[in-house]
Structure formats: C-alpha cells, structure tokens
Amino acid sequence: MLSILTLISRVLGLIREMTKAALLGTSALSDAFSVAFMIPNLFRRLFAEGSISVAFIPTFKEFLLEGNKEKIRDFLSSILTFLSFFVSLTVALGVLAAPFVVKLFNMEEYSETVFLTRMMFPFLAFISIAAFFQGILNSVRIFTPAGFAPILLNVATILCAYLLSPFMKNPARAMAVGILIGGFLEAAIQFPFVLRQGFRFSFTSLKKALSNPGTKAVLRLIGPTIIGMAAYQLNDLVSTALAGHAGPGVVSSLQYSLRLQELILGVFAVSIGTVLLPDLAESAKTSRWDMYNRRLIGAMDIIALITIPITFLCLSQGETLIRLLFQTRNFDSQSVALTLSAFRFHIPGLFFIALNRILAPAFYAQSDSKSPTLAGILSFVVNIILAAALVRPMKGAGVALALSTASAVNTILLLVFLRRNPNIAVGKALRSALVYTLKLAVFSCIAAVPLHFLNPLLLGYFSGRGRFISYGIPFIVSTIIFAAIGILLLVITKDKQAKAVAGMFKRKRN
C-alpha cells in the first residue's frame, strides 16, 4: 500500500516537474525556483526525515515496548516542544540569511531567488511537524497516511501553478504558494490518525522538554547524525553551486534528472526502508538477530531485482523518456540534451543509492548513528572532489557522475562498518547481493539488445504525431518487450525473489 501511494505521489511529483518545465523550461527563473526550494528542503531532510528515522522511531519503540502511557505522553510532548522551537528558530534565521546564502549560487535572477527562498522557508516548519506525526504512526506500523501526505503537496503545487500564475508576477511564485499550502496539508492529514491511535501530547516548557530522558536519548542519537546529514546537505549545496557556475540551465537539468531517479527510489527503496526500520528496530531491541538478517538480506535482493533492470531500461530509453515527459516550447532540444547528459550518469547510481536507503536503517535500528554518519562524511568528500574536477569538462554530467560514484563509495563503507556487529551476517548478505546483481545485469543486457534495433524504427514510424504518441507509444512498446524478456528469463531460471514477490501479490488477491 505504501508503495502504491508513493508511486502516485512520485508520478504527481513528475507531473509537478512537467508543469515547471512547461511554465519555466530551463530558464534562469527555473534555476531560481530550483535553488529557492532546495534550500529549505535541505533543512527538511535534516530536521524531518533524518531525525525521525535515525533517532525518534528507535527511541519511541522503547517507550512503546515499556507500555507506560504517562511516559509516552511526556516524551511526545517534549519532542513536539523541542522540534517546534528549534525549527521556528531555523526558519527565522533562514529568512534573514537568504541574501547571503543565495550569493553562493551565482544566480542570474538573484533578487527573485532571494524572494522565493524567503517565501518558501516556512515550508520547513509544516513538513517537520508532518514528519513528527509520520514517526508516531510508522512506529505502530501505520504507513498509509504518511504515504498519502506527499500527494497533497504535489496536487497543491500543480493547481497553484496553473490557477495562480495569471495573478502573480511569475509562475515560480505561484508554485511557491502551492509548496506552502501543500506542506500545511501534509501535517494536517496525518494529525487525525495520530489522535485515533490514542496518542495525546501538548506543548510544555523548553526546560522540561530538554530534561526528558527520551529527548536526551534522541539528541544523543541525532548528535553525530547532524554532522553526517549536514555533510550530506552541504554536498547538495556545493554540487548545486558548482553547477550554477557551469552555465544557465545546468542546475534545472540536474533537478529534472534527479526527479526521474527519485520517482523510482521513492516508489521502492524509500517504501521498503520505511517499513523495514520499525521491524529491524524491534528485532535488534529483542536480540532476534536471525529475523534481523532475513529481513535485511531479503530487502537487499528485492532492491536489486527492481533497480538493476530499471537502470538498463533507462540507459536504453533515456532520451525518449525525457522528451515524452518534459519536451515543450520552453523545454526545447537544448534542454533535452542538458537533462539527458546528467541522467545518463545519475541512473547508474540508482542501485547504490537504493541500497543505502536499506543499509542506513540497519544501523539506526541498533541505535548506531555514528557509522552511517562517518560513511556519509567520507562519501561527501569523494563527491565534492570529483564534482569540482569534472564540472568544467563535463558540466552537469560531471556533477551527476560524482554523485553516483560517491553513492557507491557510501555503500561499500556501510557494508564494511556493518561487519563490526558479529550478529549480522554481512558476508552472507554481500555474497547474495553480488551474485544476484550480476545475474540481473546479464539478464537486463539480454533484454535491452532488441531495443537497440527496434527503438529507431518505432520513433521513425510514430514521428510527427504529437509528443505523447511520438514518444509515448515507442517507450511503452519498448518497456513491454524489455519486461517480457526479463520476466521470461526469471521464470526459466526459477528466480526465488521473483517467485516470492509474485506469491505475495497472489496472497493479497486471495
């Protein structure tokens, strides 16, 4: 269910990017919106998703296992108070510091970028409270409201872009209004479900909030993570700043490329990681390491089953896909070329980024935030060195290649650090993942060969019949052929993971 809702959300997110492409293209104003939204979004990942996954859920799980309702209420009240104070302070400082931060990006539309940044910074407050509600619900294995919430964000942004653009200075400001409304709705939609579970909390004094044992435990876990997450966010900031110096449109082309990558990540990797964390946390707290290992190995194999074939399909059909989704009057052939050059180097990193979304919760479940933090810092160093070296000769493609390489380094480091716990069967998991990945890569190559010869014929036949027919039908036909060959190979070899996934859907129907 979470994957289905996330699929809807990511498709709507893609439509949101298509809306931006139609209204702004890869213009300087598009770059301005991309940077302005990225800045509060970076803090969101630090205060919202990062904190909730790293510290809140494992700590809250301990309170739930203890079962003392009074302690649970005090803990939730303390976290709400601390989070509200800290995020409000950050929003105020962000609004004041916007002119200085935006200067780092060398934006053509400097004044408009500052205005949009200030306009969207309160989004951080809404989304942080939404993440707090999500953490409560996920801890008791309720995932649907959190899966539905981002749908509202995307719908609000799309509607505001079209409905408010005629009444505002530019479409970027209309989309910014949609971001704020959507952030508020993300929090509002989850609150009734929290109350329905019987959880009650209120604001308390900041002194009482900081003295709560649960808050102290969360802060101890978050401490190292803030450094690692800050390095990760700085990663994005520096990469974007480097891309901003590579020429107009490069920042936007990277954002469009990442949106395609995140569509796949969000549907599968994020969903699996979200559901996996509470299970791993409970297994670790109760020392059920056999269950822990089975869950982790199964998740890694499923990630390979999903991401490896999609990577090969995207490498084969990248240009067709980009033209289908984004090409308009404002998103011309030059925009397609810019986005494609980044996408070809972003998509090989898909497998490693997805694995990182699975491996990081394996540490958080053990209340270990230091290991993924160290891995994040080291991979950040690799990314920035490579991006700085490659951005001049390769422009956006160099920044994308640096990110993919750094993601692979991060995966290797996480696996090395995971070996420190003798209860975790890292060797078995790694052998399983490597053999299975190689098998899927071979199958994907075989499935992609016919597309190399068929795709030009399909594009030629349907050319000149409108964007959705000219590129949509060739893409759908190529995808069906690729999937059919891949599934046939899996059936012939009696693939266990594919059989398990098919069995799961069969049970759901029954």
From TrEMBL:
Q: Which residues cross the membrane?
A: 21-40, 76-102, 114-133, 145-164, 176-196, 263-281, 302-325, 345-365, 372-391, 397-418, 430-451, 471-492
Pathway(s):
Cell wall biogenesis; peptidoglycan biosynthesis
User: Is Cell membrane among this UniProt entry's keywords?
Assistant: yes
The alphabetized UniProt keywords are: Cell membrane, Cell shape, Cell wall biogenesis/degradation, Membrane, Peptidoglycan synthesis, Transmembrane, Transmembrane helix, Transport
- Which superkingdom does the taxonomy of this entry point to? Bacteria
| Matching PANTHER family | LIPID II FLIPPASE MURJ
Q: Which GO terms describe its molecular function?
A: lipid-linked peptidoglycan transporter activity
A GO CC term assigned to this protein in UniProt: plasma membrane
Among HAMAP family, the record links this protein to: MurJ_MviN (MF_02078)
Recorded protein name is: Probable lipid II flippase MurJ
Q: What does this protein do?
A: Involved in peptidoglycan biosynthesis. Transports lipid-linked peptidoglycan precursors from the inner to the outer leaflet of the cytoplasmic membrane.
Q: Which GO terms describe its biological process?
A: cell wall organization; lipid translocation; peptidoglycan biosynthetic process; regulation of cell shape
